[in-house]
TrEMBL record:
It comes from Lactuca saligna. This is Maternal effect embryo arrest 60. The chain crosses the membrane at residues 20-40, 68-86, 119-140, 160-183. Keywords: Membrane, Transmembrane, Transmembrane helix.
Amino acid sequence: MNVDEGRTSRFGTTIHITALDGIVNVNSLFTLAVFIGLAWQPTDPSNSLVVDPKCVAGPQIAEDLICFHVYSFSSFLFSSLVALSLKQAIRIAKTSCETRHLMIFSFDMCHINKNALRVGYLISAVGSVCGCGFLMMALVNVAQIKLGTLGCGSSHTYAAVIPLLTFVPLGLLTYVFFVLFAFTR
């Protein structure tokens, strides 16, 4: 074993744990947003800014809002549990490491199945992406309840929904690109 291999192994494990912490932290923030959304009563008429009775969102949109919040919560929870499981597996592998000495340096050699780690990252990322997609759909329903349905043609609703439907998928595509890039390395 040369010096560079030991540094890469130890450094790689630290990077993996930091990345998993990041996934769990972001999922926790989004889960908080989901709970705040679930606490809101969508059928309360005082929550709506709609003037035209034809533009008032029906009960189906309110039901979809709740469903998308629950789907989002499930996806974020799934992603976080997978990430925490991977993190625990890395920590368990680190405790069973053997220490190698090379001149004045000592390195921990951990045997971590990198393919299993990559698949776990991919599964966790899929859960996060699904959660973001469901949360985005829930927010579209919030805009329809507060500002009027999309079918009504309200400029305020479109002004709220178009940036949401533009920037969130763009951010998710960027995230997916970098996850796949990391997956192949």
